[in-house]
Amino acid sequence: MAPHGRPADRNWLPATPENWPLVVDHTRTPAETVTRGPRHYGETYDTVGGRRHIQVLEADLSDPNLRVGAVEAGDTFTDPEDETPSSTARRRHAVAGVNGDYFEIHAGGRPLGGVVSDGRLLNSPKPGLASQLGVKPDGTMCGPEVIRRRRRWIRPPEP
Description:
Elements: E1 23-28, E2 32-33, E3 38-47, E4 50-59, H1 85-91, E5 115-117, E6 120-123, E7 133-135, E8 141-142, H2 144-148
Parallel strand pairs: 5-7
Antiparallel strand pairs: 1-3, 2-3, 3-4, 5-6, 7-8
């Protein structure tokens, strides 16, 4: 509280993302071009709950130089080795890799949310869980709102 019982003015503070502790400082590294289309930069947020580091990959998905795909760690749906995104990207000769789903860390590596790859449902969506990733057959990405509605582009898993 400010003097005289009025709320303190926080206009000098950086914006705080929804559901985060109050952000008191924010820094960002200069963006680096990975190749034509994607750029990478890092952000650091100092919050009252501690420091948080974020890596950001911006990509123009309309650029024909880029193709988006979902790849399973170790090329298997459940990878007990928990292959890292950087290892998966190197193995697939990708210019970038993003961990796009929450998974059972140190417990088999199975995704916790819904996963669609090339229009094929690999893991069923979980109600109320926002960690859903989908890649349609045309290469466009989608999130939980589309997967949950079970649009026609989702094909059942192959036997």
